[in-house]
Design goal:
There is one protein chain. By secondary structure, the protein is α/β, with parallel strands linked by helices. The strands form two sheets. It has a seven-stranded mixed sheet with strand order 1-7-6-5-4-2-3, sandwiched between helices. The chain has a four-stranded antiparallel sheet with strand order 8-9-11-10, covered by helices on one side. The chain is globular, with a radius of gyration of 22 Å. The relative contact order is 0.13. It binds pyridoxal-5'-phosphate (PLP). Pyridoxal-5'-phosphate (PLP) binds next to α3.
């Protein structure tokens, strides 16, 4: 039996959260707000007022788009806030540990270090597929969380869904599945399976397909109990008013996002074989994301050559399993052509 309380740090279970000025009158009508020491003389955008701490209007719009009830949604200052909160809620510093696939997104490890929690990376197989047995073997009685990223960054591939399901079923702690790139992937997203898995947290973000990296808005989907813990521990006004308003405008214009997805997927389909043809390219790895990992003859030299031409890609050659690899984001058609033109002219 999965019991959430057994996983939560005792100080967090016992915590009385900060009570916002507007919590008490909630649900009733009022027109004079002299409860929060704000300046009453505001701009038309009402930026003089504190924002909704639980972003209810925004969650109500995100819910149908993602197919997740509003009560199962947490919004944060980027996915990075949700990642940090997972440590602060579940992991006792210098006592608990977490397990994660490797290579993967760097913030899981950075956040572990900041929170003084042991981080146990478990290598993917040579073909970047999930090693379920190794992952489960790395966990012990102090393991609170397993981090899985699918489609994975920097490798680009979606991990085997059955394998991830096995980890969620067999591990008695929290499993986080980071699906920042699920919009580019055909696999059924895990956020649709929340009802089945009380120990599952799924991450999404406005930073990638949703074209809003600058507003810092991340999403976590989980059971209502886990969402309550997030809400208890987060900063009271963690998502600012400008961000909430911009996100509502993005959702109003969702057609734009869908068009961009189609262009990015078509560009991806053209770019991959063109890179694979280059004599300096040794492998183009299968991708389910808006980027591709490529193995080159000499990644460092090619990286600097591209920088000299004003083109920045991500050099991943010092990452385990990624020797001589570059990670390349799918750009606009013009940017992709510029990249290809430069790579074709490279003389190693
Ligand atoms: C880019 C990315 C994110 C997004 O983080 P934000 O803080 O929401 O911008 C999350 N997870 C992975 C794996 C990413 O690559």
């Amino acid at each position: 039996m999965f019991t959430l309380e057994n996983l939560v740090r005792k100080n967090i279970l016992a915590l009385t959260p900060y009570s916002c000025a507007r919590d008490e009158f909630k649900g009733r009508q009022a027109s004079v707000f002299i409860d929060a020491n704000e300046n009453p003389f505001g701009t038309p955008q009402k930026l003089n007022r504190y924002p909704d701490p639980l972003q209810e209007q925004l969650k109500a719009r995100i819910a149908p788009l993602k197919g997740v009830p509003a009560a199962n949604i947490f919004l944060g200052n980027g996915s990075d806030e949700a990642i940090d909160l997972v440590y602060r809620i579940f992991c006792e510093p210098r006592q608990d540990n977490v397990v994660a696939i490797a290579p993967t997104y760097g913030m899981y490890a950075v956040s572990a270090e900041i929170n003084d929690v042991e981080y146990r990376p478990v290598l993917l197989k040579e073909d970047f597929s999930l090693d379920v047995d190794a992952l489960l073997r790395a966990a012990d009685t102090h393991t609170k969380v397993i981090w899985i990223c699918s489609p994975n960054n920097p490798t680009g591939n979606a991990l085997d869904r059955k394998g991830i399901e096995r980890v969620i079923r067999e591990f008695q702690g929290i499993v986080v599945v980071d699906e920042a790139y699920s919009d580019f992937c055909d696999q059924r997203p895990f956020r649709q399976d929340l009802a089945q898995y009380p120990n599952l947290i799924v991450l999404n973000t406005f930073s990638k397909l949703w074209a809003s990296a600058a507003i810092r808005l991340g999403m976590a989907f989980a059971s209502e109990e886990i969402i309550s813990l997030f809400n208890k521990v987060k900063y009271p006004y963690n998502v600012n008013q400008l961000t909430q308003e911009h996100a509502l405008r993005v959702i109003d214009d969702i057609q734009h996002i869908n068009n961009w997805r189609a262009i990015i997927l078509s560009e991806r389909a053209h770019l991959l074989p063109a890179i694979a043809e280059l004599p300096i390219c040794k492998a183009v790895y299968p991708t389910d994301a808006n980027f591709v990992l490529v193995r080159m003859t000499n990644a460092d030299a090619i990286y600097h050559y591209l920088v000299d031409r004003g083109i920045v890609v991500r050099n991943r050659s010092r990452v385990q399993l990624c020797q001589n690899c570059l990670r390349i984001t799918i750009g606009t058609p013009a940017e992709n052509n510029q990249l290809l033109g430069a790579l074709r002219q490279y003389k190693g």
